[in-house]
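In the previous lecture we treated proteins in isolation. Real proteins rarely work alone, and many bind small molecules. This record shows how such a complex is specified: first the sequence, then the SMILES for adenosine-5'-triphosphate.
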Amino acid sequence: MILSVRDFAIGFQREGQNLVAVDGISFDVEAGETFVIIGESGSGKSLTGMSIAGLQPPTAFVSGSIRFKDREMLKRPDAELRKLRGPEIGLIYQDPLSSLNPVWP
Ligand SMILES: Nc1ncnc2c1ncn2[C@@H]1O[C@H](COP(=O)(O)OP(=O)(O)OP(=O)(O)O)[C@@H](O)[C@H]1O
Ligand SMILES: [Mg+2]
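The predicted 3D structure, ligand included, written as tokens:
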């Protein structure tokens, strides 16, 4: 198992209220497996993907667990996360032409 997400939740505080964007999801991904999350706009796909890379918005509250290669991503220091991004975890953002521009190797 390369990735294990357990009871992951993420949300924001607004006007003293907790607005929950993702309310407790769990899934596992094996090395080499292609795993797809499909959902309506605003259902939390991007927040989930960003959180796997440790890039959740700093204003967000998170709970649960995201383990990548048996280590907890939600508690890793920024310096360690930065070393993982690129060599181990890559992201193609929602505007793919800016990520896959051939003049930016
Ligand atoms: N930084 C933020 N502050 C407050 N709310 C946010 C923030 N980022 C996302 N949200 C809210 O969290 C919810 C989930 O957003 P997310 O971008 O993960 O959805 P999505 O499934 O990727 O949608 P889409 O298909 O439109 O890309 C939305 O209601 C969004 O408005
Ligand atoms: Mg999105």
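Summary for your notes: The pocket of adenosine-5'-triphosphate (ligand 1) is lined by residues 12, 21, 39, 41-47, 57, 94 (CB under 6 Å). The chain has a mean pLDDT of 93.
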